[in-house]
Design brief:
Elements (H helix, E strand, L loop, with lengths): L16 E4 L10 H7 L3 E4 L16 H11 L5 E6 L1 H12 L4 E7 L7 H16 L1 H12 L8 H12 L3 H18 L10 E6 L7 H10 L4 E5 L6 H4 L1 H24 L2
Helix pairs in contact: 1-10, 2-3, 3-7, 4-5, 4-7, 5-6
Length: 262
């Protein structure tokens, strides 16, 4: 599959929507969202994921963001990031605002507490000791018994996780584990319209974190999706697509009105 979405609805805004996935996944996690958003939607593999070369050395959030920057479509885009992708998107919005028209952060961590930081560090160490076991634990955390996500989507997520080069995955996960601390001092300098959204039941990228992010970024808003866990784009693609569409259209309408103001 190429990076371009397939036709579903005709967007009113010709500016591309660029989707960045989370650690250990690949661009196919956005397939259902892209199916709703339609043409003009681009999903990219993060460095070390999917069709990109494996990471062979420790990384920083800036390293990963620079790699993504080089592969963005020309001109400004509506940038949407999920989990690790959200941290990368925040970095791009802060340091390359000319390339980011709007910023949507889906299931993003933000300013982890000491307890939250310890929990993600424990998961990283578990992955170092037993990668396949950590994948199983992630699937259980994201799709517990009774989840409304179908078996096909769960299997596709498992397949993407197990396809990782383990060393590369660990380098990327290390950035995810500390990336919120890297970007935290810069959040107040983000000036593009920003939306933070997460699932009501997400135990890792919690509603409290989205509220912290919205409080840290000037003018940002927050949206909590009821009854959903961490894999929001998989579990409720229509809600994510609707939120992206409404937010980007509103932001562009406000920008055009400001440009016409005498």
């Amino acid at each position: 599959m190429d990076d371009l979405g397939t036709a579903a609805t005709q967007p009113t805004d010709p500016m591309p929507i660029v989707l960045l996935h989370g650690v250990g996944l690949d661009r196919t996690m956005w397939d259902a969202v892209r199916g709703v958003l339609g043409p003009g939607t681009v999903a990219l593999d993060l460095p070390g994921h999917g069709g990109q070369p494996p990471l062979r050395a420790p990384q920083s959030l800036a390293n990963l963001a620079d790699d993504v920057l080089a592969r963005l479509p020309g001109g400004p885009v509506h940038l949407v990031g999920f989990s690790l992708g959200a941290l990368i998107a925040q970095h791009l919005a802060r340091f390359h605002p000319d390339r980011v028209a709007t910023l949507t952060c889906v299931s993003s961590v933000c300013n982890r507490t000491a307890q939250e930081a310890a929990a993600v560090a424990t998961r990283l160490e578990a992955a170092r000791r037993d990668f396949r076991g950590s994948v199983a634990a992630s699937l259980q955390r994201w799709f517990p018994k009774g989840s409304r996500v179908g078996a096909e989507a769960v299997t596709a997520t498992e397949r993407a996780l197990l396809a990782n080069d383990v060393g590369s995955y660990l380098h990327a996960y290390a950035v995810f584990a500390r990336g919120d601390r890297e970007i935290a001092p810069e959040l107040g300098r983000i000036r593009v319209p920003t939306l933070a959204m997460t699932g009501e039941l997400d135990p890792g990228s919690t509603p409290a974190m989205s509220r912290r992010l919205a409080a840290a970024v000037p003018g940002a808003r927050v949206q909590i999706v009821p009854g959903v866990r961490h894999m929001l784009p998989v579990e409720d693609a229509p809600a994510v697509a609707a939120a992206i569409t409404a937010f980007t259209e509103e932001a562009m309408t406000a920008e055009r009105a400001e440009a016409l103001r005498p």
